């Protein structure tokens, strides 16, 4: 399979950001991905002792489709989140300062007051944690052929960004990714991944990522058409390496661990 494109999602529920390449570290996460979340009222998340929380505790597309109307970008160098509406910059907030946090809270209190259960405060993930939907999701791969096949059944062209994946791949038969669970993927750069599970889809995929309209019923269509609600796979990073658009991933059986014992 060939890497068609790469994306990161710095803030859970907000805009995807395309990247040309990604340096992945053993046991780590997709770089720059799900670094932040905005809690919808007190979430109970403790950065000193991070424990996975249900995504309903944060602002997210499954319940807050209005988020898709915002165009956001996170600047790694300045640590600022930029929010644009209708092509106009409406907020630039430093994610490292109390003033920046307060500005972000005030923005969402004004933007979506009827959807809030409490104060929308910014949360920052510690080094060993990310605000993923899955407890064991480190990075995700979406097969463009599967998205296209589902779109054909629905009679429409589906935007792959509905599935908010890190790595979009082509050259793989539709739904063949479902058979890769337990296998390893490798690249010439030395990167090695293990496919750990299929991704079950929720109502967030019903939202058009460009307009914010809740216009389709993706999980229902998946179940009706294929007998499951899966689209995409989660992987863990076994060996460091780089992913670049255009690079090929090769699948293989897991490498056996040789137990030499003690002489």
Overall description:
With 263 residues, this protein is of the alpha+beta class. The chain contains three helices and 15 strands. The strands form four sheets. An eight-stranded mixed β-sheet has the order 2-1-10-9-13-12-11-15. Strands 5-6-7 form a three-stranded antiparallel β-sheet, with helices on one face. The chain has a two-stranded antiparallel ribbon with strand order 3-14. β1 and β2 (17-19) form a beta hairpin. The longest helix has 14 residues, at 98-111.
Features:
3 helices, alpha+beta, 263 residues
Mean pLDDT: 94
Total number of β-strand segments?
15
Q: If helices are DSSP runs of H or I spanning 4 or more residues, what is the number of helices? A: 3
Describe the sheet with the most strands. 8 strands, mixed
């Amino acid at each position: 399979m060939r890497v068609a494109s790469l994306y990161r999602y710095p803030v859970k529920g907000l805009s995807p950001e395309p990247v040309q390449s990604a340096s992945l570290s053993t046991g780590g996460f997709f770089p720059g991905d799900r670094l932040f979340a905005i809690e919808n009222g007190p979430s109970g998340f403790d950065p000193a002792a991070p424990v996975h929380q249900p995504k309903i505790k944060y602002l997210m597309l499954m319940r807050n489709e209005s988020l898709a109307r915002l165009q956001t970008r996170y600047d790694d160098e300045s640590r600022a989140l930029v929010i644009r509406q209708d092509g106009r910059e409406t907020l630039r907030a430093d994610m490292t300062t109390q003033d920046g946090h307060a500005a972000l809270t005030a923005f969402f209190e004004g933007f979506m007051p009827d959807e809030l259960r409490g104060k929308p405060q910014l949360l920052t993930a510690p080094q060993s944690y990310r605000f993923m939907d899955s407890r064991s999701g480190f990075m995700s791969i979406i097969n463009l052929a599967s998205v296209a096949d589902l779109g054909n059944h629905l009679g429409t062209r589906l935007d792959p960004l509905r599935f908010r994946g890190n790595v979009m791949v082509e050259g793989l038969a539709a739904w063949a990714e479902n058979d890769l669970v337990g296998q390893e993927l490798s690249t010439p750069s030395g990167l090695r991944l293990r496919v750990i599970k299929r991704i079950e889809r929720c109502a967030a995929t019903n939202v058009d990522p460009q307009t914010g309209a809740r216009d389709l019923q993706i999980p229902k269509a998946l179940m009706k058409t294929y007998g499951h609600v899966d689209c995409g796979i989660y992987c863990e990073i076994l060996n460091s390496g780089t992913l670049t658009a255009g690079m090929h991933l090769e699948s293989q059986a897991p490498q056996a661990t040789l137990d030499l014992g003690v002489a």
